[in-house]
Amino acid sequence: MLNLNSIMIGSSQVKKLAEFYEKVFEKKPDWAEDKWHGWQVGSAFFTVGEHSEVKGKAKEPQRVIFNLETKEVKEEFERIKKLGAKVIKEPYEMGGGWIATFADPDGNYFQLMTPWEGAK
User: Fold this and answer.
1) Cα angle vertex 18, ends 26, 92, to 5°?
2) Which one, 10, 20, 27, 73, has least CB within 10 Å?
3) Which residues are in the VOC domain (predicted)?
4) In a shared domain, residues 28 and 70
């Protein structure tokens, strides 16, 4: 069985993206080296780093969306909105849980989601 253990976002503006996610995760990176920064977020490792073939904003940001689980979707939505994340979709209910969608400074989409109890 495969286990997803990390996500890496390539960027041409690593410092700006790292500063943004430091605020989102409310902690300094667990690992930083040159133009790479990484955080342990739950059971996965989240990394932002320089990529030679990435320029500017994401052209199709909805192609890959990563989800951050929280039981406080509405409260976290307000907190992250104040950090300057672009709101794509305000919190809405779906299947008994809540979802909200943002874009980071590079335009990559990410969502806040109520934990999916059926996934355990």
Assistant:
1) 60
2) 27
3) 3-115
4) no
